[in-house]
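Sharing a chain and its predicted structure for anyone who wants a worked example. Both blocks are below, sequence first, tokens second.
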Amino acid sequence: MKRIMILGGAEAQVPIIQAAKKEGYYVIVCDWTTTNPGIKYADKHYPVNTMDRDAVTRIAVAEKIDGVISNSEPAMLNVSYIAEELHLRGNPVSGLEILLSKDRFRSLQEEAGVYAPKHYKVSNEEDFLKTAAGMQFPFVVKPVASSGSRGTAKVLSYDEEELKKIYRINSDYSRDNCCTIEEYVEMPSLTVIEGDLFVLNKEILWDGLFFNTRSTVTPNIPMTYSIPFRTDPEKMAVIKNTLTRLLDAADFTFGELNVEMYFTEDDRLFVIEINPRQGGAGIPAFIFRHCGVDMYRLLVTTAVKDDRYFHSLKQFDRECHYMIRHSVFAHSAGVYKGISCAPAIQKYVTNIEERIVHGDRVEAGENGTNVLAFVDLEFGSYELQHQYCEDIESYISPVIADE
């Protein structure tokens, strides 16, 4: 029986734990709590912090595991470390460190010969203000080591007090307490290209690419996912070439990763980021509903060097369902009362997944962690799908009452 270690037992890890159990593997979960929902599905649970590298490595050795995975961004470095130490399938820590750093990733883009904006890493407020003073406006500030659009801010002018506030927020969100200042790259529209790719021995599956449309109110937050992704052959070739070069430069040869990018007005492909883990917001399940490719199964089977499912996909007849997964955010603070769907769109709604309880107080959405609900929809055609996608917030909205 294959033995697989999964770092984390939270809700996000439940699908990969269940996928491993479905394959008949012996599942070891490391999670410091005793209450997270994934723990009950494990064959063995160790109540240790997934960030404690020595502890999780000792467990991996003692349990004689055949593979190790996670889909929690903070845990991915320890996944790579264990894989390297035990000669399991994985990626080098050095490459993961680059992909997980917004500053070092920009340098990787430059080294790989693909487009990258000017960027500066700062580690204290004084240097931050000095660097900001020399930038052309607008520019973007991000935490160097974080996810979910936390802290990200577009700066339009020099206001010292506001800049100090932005610096504090971003440095607090960053795992290394540093932030990066980047040249702003104009988005031609509120729709970008996103998706989950799967890599095995440098072979890449491209099934998981989709569009992501942002809100006019919060353009830095991913909001409406629509699949399939369609573009002309020339642009698709640029996407494949650019991402392949970046993954080769980072020596990334195994696993699922989430990418985000767009073409600029002058047709340069700007890769915003590559996260070396599954996309959040139920993205793998969203891809499965679209085409039938099971990313959860892919991740757990290939981690223990069971590559049969991966190779079977070379002859797999993909389906094509026109899907939307819409993230609902509040644009003002108040009391959450539920989701309102206009009559015109109700017949396309297949599921509403509320993340908070009716009566809870909510704040205006500032990053991906503020999602109130996900609404899944399916349409009969690509054209109909995009007709609704372009103005979806006029059809689906949260009901927020005054306090």
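Comments welcome. The mean pLDDT is 95.
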